């Protein structure tokens, strides 16, 4: 899953703190800057652009509409404002989305999902299988056979339709090589195949006879993914 760098520009402390909290709950976002002064933010972004900017409109010295024009296409922008009258002008500036304060987590997740679709590069074609080392030899694991992966300290258990395979590697490394459109991290110790998911019960996912926990850190992004893809 590609990680997007993001910056908050807002002169109001409470909305700024709320956005920080939402970003920390979203696995594919990384907060790289928080600014109250739009001129300072402009200087920083000219030196090092971010993938995504959460930009307030009503600010002293330089408003968000002016700042967006100065930024050009170097960063994608989501406007965050209490004033709906700027929506049309905002969309004419080709912003990703326009969020009205107070911003709910659900609405925030929809906006950043749109941003990810516009920013993240097209995934490279991946082989339909993994090659993993186990018991002194290299074994081929077809991706369509893989139901979920479970971290067991320095090992990972690959649960497939044919049985369990133990391999010496980290789940983080496995997450990097598995295609993001087919597999998703739902817990610090678990990656699941979306195609193998049979249901969700409270905070766990049913795959065959197994129940996979959904970690609090991953829950919001996972539920948003399920809603967008209409998987259940």
Automatic annotation (TrEMBL):
<dbReference type="Pfam" id="PF04397">
    <property type="entry name" value="LytTR"/>
</dbReference>
<keyword id="KW-0238">DNA-binding</keyword>
<dbReference type="InterPro" id="IPR039420">
    <property type="entry name" value="WalR-like"/>
</dbReference>
<feature type="domain" description="HTH LytTR-type">
    <location>
        <begin position="130"/>
        <end position="228"/>
    </location>
</feature>
<protein>
    <submittedName>
        <fullName>Response regulator transcription factor</fullName>
    </submittedName>
</protein>
<feature type="domain" description="Response regulatory">
    <location>
        <begin position="5"/>
        <end position="116"/>
    </location>
</feature>
<feature type="modified residue" description="4-aspartylphosphate">
    <location>
        <position position="56"/>
    </location>
</feature>
<dbReference type="InterPro" id="IPR001789">
    <property type="entry name" value="Sig_transdc_resp-reg_receiver"/>
</dbReference>
<keyword id="KW-0597">Phosphoprotein</keyword>
<dbReference type="InterPro" id="IPR007492">
    <property type="entry name" value="LytTR_DNA-bd_dom"/>
</dbReference>
<dbReference type="Pfam" id="PF00072">
    <property type="entry name" value="Response_reg"/>
</dbReference>
<dbReference type="InterPro" id="IPR011006">
    <property type="entry name" value="CheY-like_superfamily"/>
</dbReference>
């Amino acid at each position: 899953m590609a990680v997007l760098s993001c910056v908050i520009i807002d002169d109001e402390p409470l909305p700024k703190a709320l956005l920080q909290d939402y970003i920390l709950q979203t696995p594919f976002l990384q907060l790289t800057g928080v600014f109250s002064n739009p001129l300072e933010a402009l200087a920083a972004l000219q030196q090092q652009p971010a993938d995504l900017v959460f930009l307030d409109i009503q600010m002293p010295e330089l408003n968000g509409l002016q700042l967006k024009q100065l930024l050009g296409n170097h960063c994608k922008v989501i406007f965050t404002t209490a004033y709906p009258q700027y929506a049309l002008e905002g969309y004419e500036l080709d912003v990703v989305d326009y969020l009205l304060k107070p911003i709910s987590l659900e609405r925030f997740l929809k906006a950043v999902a749109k941003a990810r679709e516009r920013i993240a590069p097209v995934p490279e074609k991946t082989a339909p299988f993994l090659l993993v080392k186990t018991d002194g030899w290299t074994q081929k694991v077809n991706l369509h056979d893989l139901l979920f992966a479970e971290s067991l300290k320095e090992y990972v258990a690959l649960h497939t339709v044919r049985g369990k395979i133990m391999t010496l590697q980290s789940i983080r490394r496995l997450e990097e090589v598995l295609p993001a459109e087919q597999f998703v991290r739902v817990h610090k110790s678990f990656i699941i195949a979306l195609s193998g998911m049979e249901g969700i019960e409270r905070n766990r996912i049913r795959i065959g006879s197994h129940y996979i926990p959904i970690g609090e850190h991953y829950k919001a992004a996972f539920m948003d993914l399920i809603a967008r893809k209409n998987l259940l």
